[in-house]
């Protein structure tokens, strides 16, 4: 299927307006399925970052946005969700032509998740403890005490290319729910949907509350992280860049949320229902061509099931249809870029060199109508050991490592033997066993007999080097507030203030 895509132009989005970059420069965005140019986007500069941050600062400091009452704020969040729903088709299209995500996934999952997140956080906002009264305690003395939760201020959001809209929403929704303002820097492969999303949001929030600066990560991202008028940084991306951001944010002691890489273990137990576990494990690893941080890339299979499971995995994988993401019949789209394709192929070569057995895929593919796209066959390695490079490093492509085990404790030990700790899974008919395994797995989310089930009302984030902090759920609201303790003395007479005697003992 060939779909002709029109080249669009996108300026920066600052203070509620479209504006060119200060130096008028642009960069090109290509469709990874076809290699075609799809957009020219403003290549921002540090001066543009400054303008955007100032707009966000003014909107935070000088308007009533931060003080809006929760009922009105919930209405704003609902209004944003309606904007997204009303423009779902355009958002899905922009996302598909730049990220290579299939319209089938974006339409049936991403858009619904975004709408659901804004609505869920709107509902949470109504119940949120913006002010809590503490009991009057005997110690340190009678007083009225409150804990107020206040917005942090200007929040910088830096996002990756794999799920640009959804991950932007994980940051924008809680930030706005708590009264902050936002400057977002999307990845340069995939800025289009974020720019459109900001325009939609700006239809219902004051100018300056949401701003987008596009351009190179090392320049725009670092300028944001270093900016003295930015109060918080929320970053999703590789662990390598996360490390750098954490270092830079320390210069101005910024509140930082990091959502980083993963190498998630998936353990099949002997009593697993294979009719679900096999398709479920493939869904866990090959969705979006394996370019999801929480992909289940290491599958642990007991000796007794090994051959049967491998045969089932290979049979089902060989039926996956690679194609243009805009075609609703496509199961698997391209990977994001030529560079990413080459990285994935080099990992596949490393797996072969290390002695793993390639049982499925392993090559790049030419897809009819998308001859210049970057497609890699869904790939399965067996006889993988957990110390191999392909089992330890994040490939971020459609590569499954199947690892054999004899004893469950050995599988759990290998599962945890990684620098990452984002997601994990276990497949079994025994719910008690499942909880026992879940308890032992070092990961921010554990799926039992399922995968990729992220929820707006549940926190998501990583153990170990997969990150710091959580997005979504109630915890995401906490992450965009700071607390203020307010104390009011109930002792009008000086003689009842025993504490003062610590200083004025002689008087
Ligand atoms: P990346 O780290 O290369 O880039 C992420 C973002 O950071 C981009 O916008 C990029 O322009 C910007 N950036 C790059 N260098 C920077 C710097 N020095 N300072 C500031 N910003 C900079 O990641 P990617 O390749 O876009 O995305 C893939 C990675 O993201 C994978 O490692 C994946 O696991 C991770 N990821 C994690 C989650 C999660 O929730 N934990 C979700 C999706 C993706």
UniProtKB/TrEMBL annotation:
<keyword id="KW-0560">Oxidoreductase</keyword>
<dbReference type="Pfam" id="PF00171">
    <property type="entry name" value="Aldedh"/>
</dbReference>
<dbReference type="InterPro" id="IPR016161">
    <property type="entry name" value="Ald_DH/histidinol_DH"/>
</dbReference>
<protein>
    <submittedName>
        <fullName>Aldehyde dehydrogenase family protein</fullName>
        <ecNumber>1.2.1.-</ecNumber>
    </submittedName>
</protein>
<dbReference type="InterPro" id="IPR029510">
    <property type="entry name" value="Ald_DH_CS_GLU"/>
</dbReference>
<dbReference type="InterPro" id="IPR015590">
    <property type="entry name" value="Aldehyde_DH_dom"/>
</dbReference>
<feature type="active site">
    <location>
        <position position="259"/>
    </location>
</feature>
<feature type="domain" description="Aldehyde dehydrogenase">
    <location>
        <begin position="21"/>
        <end position="486"/>
    </location>
</feature>
<comment type="similarity">
    <text>Belongs to the aldehyde dehydrogenase family.</text>
</comment>
<dbReference type="InterPro" id="IPR016163">
    <property type="entry name" value="Ald_DH_C"/>
</dbReference>
<dbReference type="GO" id="GO:0016491">
    <property type="term" value="F:oxidoreductase activity"/>
</dbReference>
<dbReference type="InterPro" id="IPR016162">
    <property type="entry name" value="Ald_DH_N"/>
</dbReference>
